[in-house]
Specification:
Blueprint (H helix, E strand, L loop, with lengths): L17 H12 L3 H4 L29 H22 L9 E5 L5 H10 L2 E6 L2 H13 L6 E5 L12 E7 L7 H11 E14 L8 H10 L6 H10 L2 E8 L1 H11 L9 H10 L2 E10 L1
Parallel strand pairs: 1-2, 1-4, 2-3, 4-5
Antiparallel strand pairs: 5-7, 6-7
Length: 289
């Protein structure tokens, strides 16, 4: 693969596989209201799910504002998830540099900058996402510290040891974990932190369930087994220090989303897979040794 430029928002496309090109095309065209209307509330656009107890009172009250209340509650839950991930990034100073790998529309990068007042680089293979995220950083007045790049997370072109911490938030299912973690071992400074929140299929269940296969088809991704994360981390000098099963914590989000006008039709597959044990939602934090 070719080395990509570090110029923020660079138009030059990184080298990608045919599959990655199809993923980039999907996200370049994606305009799903569940990824847009929530972010319109406060300018933090997230491309992930939520955790925590639902305030079910949002279903009560005037029918005319019911959808607005549900949307605000879904956003509160996804912001709670972003905050929970940031809690696991370790000790970060304003002089540190972080990498939001698979940054989507940039919400997680903005959260990390707000939390730590540090430099954050976000990367995506979607030109549309990079442009959108860069515009949000400018709107928030942090574009001097939060920069977005059109890059392949498997071959970023950043210098070795550039980052104090790296994270993926629901984006590892689009890549080969052996290649991904090898790149992160190169990019992280010694003692640096890697964090992922991801859906993975449960090895004890066996092969991916029908519901997991449905999710794969819906998002054109390839959900990994739980064991693959720990095996490939061990192969690439990433030692887990914290593993949190968030499956029960995310079910309420999906139950509320299923009652929302923002439902996409995939909600039943998630809920069934979580409840039958074939699918898990994990946070894994690891240190680079």
């Amino acid at each position: 693969m070719t080395m990509a430029t570090e110029r923020p928002g660079a138009a030059a496309a990184p080298t990608v596989s045919a599959y990655q090109a199809s993923v980039a095309d999907y996200w370049n065209r994606e305009q799903n209201p569940v990824n847009l209307r929530l972010g319109e509330i406060d300018g933090f656009y997230h491309h992930h799910y939520g955790i925590g107890d639902v305030d079910w009172s949002v279903l009560e009250g005037p029918e005319g504002t019911r959808d607005e209340r549900i949307t605000a509650e879904l956003h509160r839950l996804e912001c709670a998830q972003a905050g929970f991930l940031a809690d696991h990034l370790g000790s970060v100073s304003p002089d540190d540099r972080l990498l939001d790998s698979g940054c989507g529309r940039g919400g997680g990068s903005l959260v990390a900058n707000k939390r730590f007042d540090c430099q954050v680089d976000g990367i995506s293979i979607s030109e549309t996402q990079v442009a959108f995220a860069a515009a949000q950083a400018k709107k928030h007045g942090v574009h001097d510290k939060v920069r977005f790049h059109l890059k392949n997370m498997l071959d970023t072109g950043f210098a070795p040891g550039s980052f104090r911490a790296i994270w993926n938030n629901e984006s590892t299912m689009y890549v080969d974990l052996s290649l991904l973690f090898a790149e992160y071992a190169r990019l992280l400074a010694s003692g640096g932190r890697y964090v992922t929140i991801t859906g993975c299929y449960n090895d004890r269940y066996g092969l991916p369930s029908r519901e997991v296969s449905t999710i794969n088809a819906h998002y054109i991704c390839d959900i990994h087994p739980r064991s693959a994360y720990f095996r490939e981390m061990a192969n690439n000098r990433l030692v887990p220090i914290s593993v949190v099963d968030l499956t029960a914590a995310t079910i309420p989000y999906w139950e509320l989303r299923a009652k929302s006008s923002l439902a996409t039709g995939i909600e039943d597959a998630f809920l069934t897979a979580y409840k039958n044990g074939s699918f898990q939602y994990l946070l894994i934090a690891a240190d680079r040794i």
